[in-house]
Amino acid sequence: MLRPRYIYLFVISFFVVISSTGALSAQFRTVTDSAQREVTIPRTVDRIICSGAGCLRLVTYLGAQNLVLAVDDIEKRKRRFDARPYALANPRFKKLPVFGEFRGHDDPEKILGLDPLPQVIFKTYPSMGYDPQELQEKTGIPVITLNYGNLGKHRKALYRSLTIMGTILGKEKRSKEVIRFFEDEIQTLDGLCKASASLNQRRCYVGGIAFKGPHGFSSTEPSYPPFVFVHAQNLAAAGGFAGRNMMHSQVSKEKILEWDPEILFLDLSTLQMGDHAGGLYELRTDPVYQSLSALKREQVFGVLPYNWYSQNFGSILANAWFIAKVIYPDRFSDIDPAAKADDIYEFLVGQPVFGQMNTYFQSMVFKPVPMQEN
User: Fold this and answer.
1) Mean pLDDT of the chain
2) Integer angstrom CA distances of residue 80 from 151, 356, 360
3) pLDDT of residue 9
4) CA 260 → CA 204, 244, 270, 294, 332, distances in Å?
5) In the chain, where does the domain assigned CATH 3.40.50.1980 lie?
6) What is the CATH topology of the domain spanning 200-360?
7) Class of domain 23-171
8) Backbone Cα Rg of the chain
């Protein structure tokens, strides 16, 4: 039989253990990421890194960019062109240390060499680069995987990722505001364009779209979001190319000639190919393209590159407003596309960066593309 003194000590020890366990649990919480992994993280997170295409963009949308300790190497590169509003609005990213290579090729040793250490690693496109679970085991740092999604069929996945990040970073209100902003923009465009399109749907083609690098004018996207939002007829989708790859397709110039679109749009990412290659050069020099009626009627317009280290959602919306103005000029007579773009960027990344991007792309954004060199 235990003496009263030992009983007392046992009871005290028991409550000390319970108290310690409670204090420990109060410092941590468990969240579920996009891959349905349950991950234990600190209750308060104020030090992070972002791995994978577009990850840093989402953190910037939430206004949490100041929590970032280090970046992947794409943020440090000097570029003649850049179409990433989140990076243009945050030049401090170029001054941060590097923790790995772009597209998720993380370096655990470099991560562990950071001082202070990140409390959480966010990772988009988890099937690319370093395996998230292995990275977590090697660094001892929680890894949260995110489905980047898009503004089309995978919009819910995007919203889920914004919600997860907002919950972890104490940005719940902001994540809801960003989601509401996307929905309001898309619904407003739909409401303004649907009736006009039912009377006169315009036959359009967009060429020069980037896909893991720049491409020529035959590079297009059957599910190009701005066309969807403004009810334009995307000839690449109507032409049977959608079944191959909704995100990207290569169309022969003969097929484009057969379609003979009413209006052509040029994704200016193609300018990265140089002065004697790419979509603009092809339009100016190829006899097949020069026979298109849209060229003869000067109906070729430059739009912002949007597929640049994954999709830039702000640029998708800005392009949609410009395209709507081109297709339905009377309906959008009061819209200044450049000003609208800056309104979008100020909300999403905190800075009006349209002018800077336009300068990079020879001031052809949201303008008729000249078919003669200046």
Assistant:
1) 91
2) 28, 12, 7
3) 35
4) 9, 21, 21, 7, 25
5) 23-171, 200-360
6) Rossmann fold (3.40.50)
7) alpha beta
8) 25
